[in-house]
Records
---
Amino acid sequence: MIDLLVAGGGPAGLATAIHAARRGLQTVVIEKRPGAIDKACGEGLMPHAVRELGLLGAHPAGVPFRGITYLDGKRSVSAAFASGPGLGVRRTALHRALLDAAGAAGVRIETGTVGAVTQDDDGVCVNGIRARYLAAADGLHSPVRAGLGLHRPGPATRRWGFTRHVGVAPWSDCVEVYWAADPAAGEAYVTPVAGDCVGVAILSSRQGGFDEHLAAFGALRDRLAGHPNEPDRAAGPLRQRVARRVVGRVLLVGDAAGYVDALTGEGLGLSFAAARTLVDSVVADRPADYERRWRKTTRRYRLMTAGVLRASGSPLRPLIVPAARLAPPVFTRIVNLLAE
Ligand SMILES: Cc1cc2nc3c(=O)[nH]c(=O)nc-3n(C[C@H](O)[C@H](O)[C@H](O)COP(=O)(O)OP(=O)(O)OC[C@H]3O[C@@H](n4cnc5c(N)ncnc54)[C@H](O)[C@@H]3O)c2cc1C
């Protein structure tokens, strides 16, 4: 019997597997897609996520950014990170670096689709593989989570993410967040990911094509016009409510464990931090501890993201950028609470 089986080899699954293998656990990852996987993502690693990557021994090529800029079409305001730069990094580069680190740690990766999960007092069984524990890292719509009946209904207003890579040299050393006047049109993020490429992510409560969404951000649309782009991607609904993160010997990590919104760009850093916590609980043979520790690790992010999300959908929305400009220390403090 192996020690830890990981369902899903995205960033959360690979981070979990790397930490586990390094702690001496025999670890197998089952991922349905081979190679370096692309996915709709803003691709901005906040400073704490960069530190977590270092702990994982993963060093992808990317573009450092020094903070966050908010823009509303009329004005802009920037806040610098106090604890070092963030990193804009393409998902494929991130995934390749994590795969390399997993290989170096001795993780076995199998290509396959995770099927039904059964468990007893001593272990779990998936696809004929028996393990002491299962980490479900199978993403936003986690089939393992659904199979365990842990999914809870989301809010009435749903949001989706739409992404595109554009072949243009980055023009800012910050991640830019453009706030559309109409709350339903949402926010557009621009992250520098290479010397000749930016990633654009739009979060919106409307469905539709990327160009349709981009039309709500006139200045950004004009800046991107005429530059080549890669095929668009989409993901959502973003909000995923989860009853709990531990059922017997199955522990949920990454987006599978629950997701608020991409508004504050925290998903990867939290996935990496939760992966460490999960492995601590497995090594201690105390899986139930993970729920409490997950809540503690993610509390600030969940509360702050939910707070910004509420403000963004309220009559306060038009005041967000002017208020940040009027009180730069407050804006900088909020940005750094999320970056730490
Ligand atoms: C539009 C958007 C913008 C974002 N921007 C940012 C950002 O700027 N910064 C940031 O930190 N985070 C951002 N995020 C969040 C970030 O993308 C996620 O938090 C992160 O990808 C979570 O990783 P994961 O491994 O949990 O899930 P995933 O990356 O989705 O990986 C799950 C893996 O499980 C596999 N899988 C699923 N089902 C099965 C199965 N049955 N069998 C085998 N394998 C399976 C999938 O193939 C996949 O590889 C953004 C998200 C979105 C949608």
---
Amino acid sequence: MSERIALVTGGSRGLGKNAALKLAAKGTHIILTYNSSQKEAQEVVREIELKGVKAVALQLNVGDTSAFERFAAEVLSQLKHVWQRDTFDYLLNNAGTGLYAPFAETSEAQFDDAMNVHFKGPFFLTQRLLPLIKDGGRILNVSSGLARFAQPGSSTYAAMKGAMEVLTRYQAKELGARKITANIIAPGAIETDFGGGRVRDNAQINQMVASNTALGRVGLPDDIGDAIAALLSDELGWMNAQRIEVSGGMFL
Ligand SMILES: NC(=O)c1ccc[n+]([C@@H]2O[C@H](COP(=O)([O-])OP(=O)(O)OC[C@H]3O[C@@H](n4cnc5c(N)ncnc54)[C@H](OP(=O)(O)O)[C@@H]3O)[C@@H](O)[C@H]2O)c1
């Protein structure tokens, strides 16, 4: 199999870190991004290199479209320098933060922040990176179970994820000419730092999720990292334009 390179946004912690490690374990080289956790990102690079593949960490705020041109130039420069290539194979749009605010109390500033990070950012980042994605490559976006079921306090966040689900189908349609697939994974509630670590650290929330999940527990980062590595495998190259929920059967 020829060399594969994945660009993983938000690879310094949580699901992005886990996915990067799982992809690396299958021989995929990694470009990961961090927003503020430079030290953690460098540690992930070290862990990936121990698996025998190459990795670099680049700073990126996905909520700031004005930085995307510089970022794309840096990605190209790293591709040339580290891999002697000018394209990568897989784009995982994973970076993001939580927002919990009742619909009636959500401010315009909160809405704009969520939109910038969870919709506008991935939209224009992917557009900007298109020339660097190899023909036949893959885009995997990240949604949430919350785009299917409704939990109070997540209207803005979930609506942005819903927008990403629609965008994914359009990306699949329009990028098919280049044999690039676009799919979107929707994790259920997973124990990470997300939302201040509430699913992991708040026993009441943890129990509520577990008791509403068919498999009887909260999701773990490994559940999603493994799924992402599987979704980006050669065996699933014919899957296109799909939303795949990976939640252990939450709120069925
Ligand atoms: N955990 C869950 O229950 C769950 C469920 C469904 C969907 N998701 C989705 O899964 C994705 C990852 O979540 P997670 O649980 O791994 O969260 P996490 O543990 O809080 O990690 C978030 C990651 O995203 C990066 N990030 C945050 N804001 C950013 C920004 N403005 N620009 C660039 N990078 C940014 C962080 O970088 P720094 O460390 O450098 O700040 C970090 O690497 C998100 O899209 C989230 O919506 C999570």
---
Amino acid sequence: MKKEKFFFDANLLRYERIEESLKSKFVRFFSVVSAVLTTALLLTVFLHKYLPSPQEKSLLSEIDVMEVEYQRLVDEMERMEKVLGNVQKRDSYTYRSLFGLDPIDNNVWRGGIGGHNEYENFEQYKKVGETIIETQKRLRRLKHALVIQSKSLDTIMNYAKKEEKFLASRPSIKPVRSDKLAKGVNFLSGFGYRIHPIFKVKKMHYGIDFTAPKGTAIQATGSGRVVKATRNAGFGNHIVIDHGFGYQTIYAHLSKINIRQGDQVVRGQLIGTVGSSGISTAPHCHYEVHVNGKPVNPISYCLDGLSVQEYKELVTLAGQVVQSLD
Ligand SMILES: [Zn+2]
């Protein structure tokens, strides 16, 4: 209810209503409106400053989740660093050393951590900047070490493949399968000076003669390529296999040749049979091993299925005989 104002008229001796001017009404109205607006504005600023809005509340709770997740990722990264550290140790002191490779230098593992400018964007954030920069550096180191590790494994793999091929190619078994000591080798002529069976003179014998009945299987002693499968006066039917890595083997006096020049053969493959072709006095396989073009004692390359004792006996036998078969 609107309040009315009166004044006392002394002349008329009565109260008269005071009529408010339009201007005064306007001034009063705007005063009230501006007071209300100012109060509302101050209240809004206060609430906005000290009490979070629903949107801010939601953002704050998202930040909380992110902080927890961030810490979890940092912990995970630490575990990965430890695992990689173990792999690096095995890489350096087991795998690389197996192939005679030097361990990778620590400085190579660590690598650079990037230029200063790369991180300056984060330096402005006083609260989280340092954490972000440190995490980025760790992540970069981890990534770098993984790349180095991957390259190192490539190198090791290449060496292993080469080694695998080498092991498969190197002559390492006897050429005659049935020539087991247990089955009785009654005659075996070794590498060295021997009296030639036909010429009866002391002559260098460049191989080992494995005696066996005619027709006994002869096997390739390592993987390789047949570079000769032919017949001549001295060796009779004979085969030459090139094993790579500087190794060649010769199998002579065969009764039959089962492969052709140019064939690829694997260790243990049947290549021919024992005979007495060429200059020979009895069925046997004359076996030679050449390393870089020079004949070496094949006894060092006959390691298959023999116990230490059997191998010693084989070496003794090969050394005792004074006359070769060819
Ligand atoms: Zn011989």
---
Amino acid sequence: MAIQLGDDPDHELVIKVRDLVVGFGDRDVIDGFDLDVRRGEILGVVGPSGAGKSVTLRAVIGLLPKKAGTVEVFGLDMDRATDAERLAIERRWGVLFQQGALFSSLTVKQNIEMPMREHTDLSARMMDEVARLKIDLVGLKPEAAELYPAELSGGMIKRAALARALALDPDIVFLDEPTAGLDPIGANAFDRLIMTLKETLGLTVYMVTHDLDSLTTACDRIAALKGGKLLAIGPMSEMVKNDDPWMKDYFRGERARAAGFGANAA
Ligand SMILES: Nc1ncnc2c1ncn2[C@@H]1O[C@H](COP(=O)(O)OP(=O)(O)O)[C@@H](O)[C@H]1O
Ligand SMILES: [Mg+2]
């Protein structure tokens, strides 16, 4: 069944993906993927391991070439954008990657200053000031500024990477499995941080996650990616009713029951 997207008068779209095809060699990982991301929402992106969640994220932000399809950000077709327009759009998003969240040879402060060096001509003193503000914003202690990634806990690394993603005061943040590898308390604290930032900064959040707790507590809507396509999109209440075998297992299986929901959905 085709999923109805677009023509959404009640919600301003910040990202609109249509018929996206991304592949490596002659193998297409993403094959006709559509997605709408609404302004101010936390959208959780789920799907089987290897389904192409990270590939999609990278294609949306232009780090992987598309074979076909369109990606519109703030109404601008990224393929038709001039270099200056593309740069302006790139300044409006921040990214927390699944792997290599931070440069290991740089301190937390230097990591956060990287995007500023790349995209602004702020003075060293201003960059320093902004970095300290971001460190505070993500709940790290001021002393963390001078530490190297190897000296940080998993949770601190995620927060520092988030601070870097927020360096340019973005409108959108892309997070790829931000709570993976964190203990439940750390993961929950990170989710609450994201929710607070959404409320206070008006951020739009595109979050790839496996974490059922994150999906339940933090996400306004969930997009499920399977077989290279968008399988379903909607609030959790709709996800638990979906009859796709992977969806059933994911949202109503043992893990879901252990997480305390989905028990009555079957
Ligand atoms: N640079 C690459 N070259 C070849 N294949 C890749 C590359 N990056 C990802 N893939 C393949 O694309 C598929 C989707 O990967 P990925 O998006 O990382 O999955 P996930 O949904 O777990 O994030 C996988 O089969 C992966 O092996
Ligand atoms: Mg991935």
